[in-house]
């Protein structure tokens, strides 16, 4: 797990501590229904996190896009992850996912 974006708490579920940062951020505070959107994003993120490790890695992203009917090559997937994570990691963190979903370049994930 990276940068404490998600903390697994045994059988107690998942705590998405990073969501509070978005509620307090002036860049997103004018976004209508932000709290509701964050809840939807949390559920979607959990769908993409197929291995349950708190990060979306290449194979999870590949399987999910195939399920959505938008298969991608490994190179395309790597580029997507690099674009979303800012080339800092080879996985997508919850913070990165929410930033992407609140931004303009999230069409593939909004499907």
TrEMBL record:
PANTHER family: ALLOGRAFT INFLAMMATORY FACTOR 1, ALLOGRAFT INFLAMMATORY FACTOR-1
Pfam families linked: AIF-1
Domain EF-hand: from-to ranges: 36-71
PROSITE patterns, per database record: EF_HAND_2
Signal sequence residues: none
Alphabetical list of InterPro entries matching this protein: AIF-1_EF_pair (IPR049025), AIF1/AIF1L (IPR042433), EF-hand-dom_pair (IPR011992), EF_hand_dom (IPR002048)
Topology within the bilayer: Peripheral membrane protein
UniProt KW keywords: Acetylation, Calcium, Cell membrane, Cell projection, Cytoplasm, Cytoskeleton, Membrane, Metal-binding, Phosphoprotein, Repeat
Protein name as catalogued: Allograft inflammatory factor 1
Keyword Nucleotide-binding set for record: no
Keyword Cell cycle in record: no
């Amino acid at each position: 797990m990276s940068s404490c974006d998600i903390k697994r708490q045994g059988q107690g579920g998942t705590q998405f501590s990073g969501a509070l940062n978005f509620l307090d951020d002036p860049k997103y505070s004018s976004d209508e229904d932000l709290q509701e959107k964050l809840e939807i994003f949390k559920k979607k993120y959990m769908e993409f996190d197929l291995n349950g490790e708190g990060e979306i890695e290449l194979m999870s992203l590949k399987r999910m896009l195939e399920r959505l009917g938008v298969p991608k090559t490994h190179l395309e997937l790597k580029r997507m992850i690099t674009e979303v994570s800012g080339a800092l990691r080879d996985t997508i963190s919850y913070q990165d996912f929410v930033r992407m979903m609140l931004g303009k370049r999230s069409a593939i994930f909004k499907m």
